[in-house]
Amino acid sequence: MSEKKLFIQTLGCAMNVRDSEHIVAELSQKENYTLTEDIKEADLILINTCSVREKPVHKLFSEIGAFEKIKKNGAKIGVCGCTASHLGDEIFKRAPYVDFVLGARNVSKITKAVKTPKFIGTDIDYDESEFTFADFRNNPYKTYINISIGCDKHCTYCIVPYTRGDEISIPFDIIFKETLKAVQKGAKEVFLLGQNVNNYGKKFRNNHKKIDFSDLLEELSTIEGLERIRFTSPHPLHMDDKFLQVFANNPKICKSIHMPLQSGSDNILKAMKRGYDKKWYLNRAFKIRELCPDVSISTDIIVAFPGESDKDFEETMDVLEQVRFEQLFSFKYSKRPLTKAASMPNQIPEDIASSRLTTLQNRHNEILDEIVLKQKNKEVKVLFEELRANGAVAGRTDNNFLVQIQGSEEFLGKLKRVKITDVKRMVLHGEII
Ligand code: SAH
Ligand code: SF4
Ligand code: F3S
């Protein structure tokens, strides 16, 4: 089989990044494709899309148009991922030169898709929880492992349940074997992925051994050679005491946790259907800080959800003041098709949304400047995972601060003690000790 070139662009969350790895693995091992970063020499161009907010979806069609103009003669274009799931054959209508459409949760059909004219696979009930994909990883030291697919939470703003279908847990044996294999190939850190990781084990495709997320963490931590375990996203609602104890006491679990808040207002949390209130959220955040004094807490916040008043927004600002997040991902509410919130009254005007986002981000930047200043002169342990420009190499501390030192390949995949000598908002600089 002659060698073919694959160009792949990945947008969206870690689940899409992992899906792209599976796509590359399947195509390289079964169809003899190799990766290229030069779109002009590609025989196959793939765009793995995200639908969670409106802007990237708009951009998709202008991007496909641009790719069509520069691609080499006979090259194919495929649209994959979450936008493929919810737009389906509308993509063919709006961009007739697209060769196939492959939704999230249909990744295992990629080899068929490339060989079938106008293939479309967008079934959100399709079950890939036990599919054995071929193996490929962008980064051998830090490896993504899926532990569940889909989400049934149906938060009223969110399109994900309509692009990735209902939640199904991947059997423990598959996760364990995949982790073991990654560690044998040099991984020091695994990143467990799912939309609600701490709801793991509620529903399997077949009758599998019953196991919850806390037990999964404990079992994986027995793997020799595995140094660090991270996971995303846990849901604040499922942060019970058992989970917090395991999180705090297992030394292989990194003391960094994502606690997606979305809003600090009880009215808005209810309208979002998040299942917790401000009091529960603060209680969990304080408990985590009490159990693990060095923990980093990151969060996602949406401003200007329909009906959000100034008072509601102040409640969000209040949580920001109280928890003092080490990392914030913040977004203006974006109206998404199929979701309940899209038809709610009192959609918030753009100028108010922008001003709230700026207020939130400015205050968070001030908090962050204070937080990073405290890191100066600290001695930390860094797992180096990425080469940077100008002879630098970067990695993360256990509690997820990005640290950069002068150095090269010899540090990759190694855990080293570093003294922090200088701090910037997004990156700490240090020296090996
Ligand atoms: N399962 C994760 C979220 C995945 S989506 C969780 O429950 O936390 C990632 C983030 O995108 C969400 O946490 C939310 O903050 C944001 N998001 C989702 N839908 C959105 C929308 N319609 N408008 C703006 N932000 C949105
Ligand atoms: Fe979306 Fe809510 Fe599911 Fe997260 S938990 S993916 S925000 S529906
Ligand atoms: Fe985007 Fe799909 Fe992830 S919508 S955030 S790529 S689950």
Question: Overview of this structure, please?
Answer:
- It catalyses: N(6)-dimethylallyladenosine(37) in tRNA + (sulfur carrier)-SH + AH2 + 2 S-adenosyl-L-methionine = 2-methylsulfanyl-N(6)-dimethylallyladenosine(37) in tRNA + (sulfur carrier)-H + 5'-deoxyadenosine + L-methionine + A + S-adenosyl-L-homocysteine + 2 H(+).
- Residues 373-433 form the TRAM domain.
- This protein is an alpha/beta fold.
- Among the domains are: 4-121, Methylthiotransferase, N-terminal domain (Rossmann fold, 3-Layer(aba) Sandwich), CATH 3.40.50; 379-432, OB fold (Dihydrolipoamide Acetyltransferase, E2P).
- Helices cover 34% and strands 23% of the residues.
- The protein has helices at residues 14-31, 54-70, 81-87, 90-94, 110-115, 160-164, 172-184, 213-220, 241-249, 266-272, 278-291, 310-323, 350-373, and strands at 4-10, 33-35, 44-49, 76-80, 100-103, 119-121, 142-146, 148-149, 168-169, 189-193, 228-232, 256-258, 296-303, 327-332, 379-388, 392-397, 402-406, 415-423, 428-432.
- The longest helix has 24 residues, at 350-373.
- The N and C termini lie far apart (51 Å).
- Iron/sulfur cluster binds next to helix 6.
- Residues 12-13, 15-16, 50-52, 81-82, 104, 160, 163-164 line the site of FE3-S4 cluster.
Bound molecules: S-adenosyl-L-homocysteine, iron/sulfur cluster, FE3-S4 cluster
Report the sheet-strand fraction.
Answer: 15-25%
Task: Output mean pLDDT.
Answer: 96
Enter the CATH topology name of the domain at 4-121.
Answer: Rossmann fold
Q: In the CATH hierarchy, what is the superfamily of the domain at 4-121?
A: Methylthiotransferase, N-terminal domain
| Uncertain stretches of 5 or more adjacent residues | none
Largest sheet: 6 strands, parallel
Determine the fraction of residues in helical runs and give it as a percent range: 25-40%
* Tally of helical runs: 13
